[in-house]
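dumping this here before i forget
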Amino acid sequence: MTIGGVLLAAGAGSRMGMPKALVVGADGQPWLARGVRVLADAGCEPTVVVLGARADEARTLLPGGVPVTVGIADDWQSGLSASLRSGLEVAATFDDVDAVVITLVDLPDLGADAIRRMASVPPDAARSALRQAHYAGHPGHPVLIGRDHWLPLRRSLTGDSGARAYLAAHGAETVDCSDLGSGRDVDSPRELG
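structure:
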């Protein structure tokens, strides 16, 4: 069984004042590099990073020593659907990947333990799996999407919405990750503290 990782980091980050792929945390670590390392540390291979706004600058923040495949969401302005679609398209180029764990660049307290928990599916169920992390009863990231769902999910994506409607319509398994983090995404500079 092979579980890949997809880090979505294509947006302009209008409320942040810059693309979140370019944000450097208080610890001096770029969010982009941190997100890649979390996926890699959890054993997700291959790891796909989807860039868009200011992609050339963001590429310089990718960590050395960690194999990464970069996908560019050329239509990133159309919203989250463009990033997710691009990530699934790149993942589909890896024939042996059974499922991917998808997460966002703006989750500073997401750790490898949550990724591993999401990826812990029986090998014979990986391709059909749909799982979504929940924090204190609220849906969040990461999500695990088995390969059987990639094409229908891509076809369902529009505008600035991700997989939430698809996950709900197809009975995604809820995975409580409340003990592993807050699930909180950071949207503005005032939330950085």
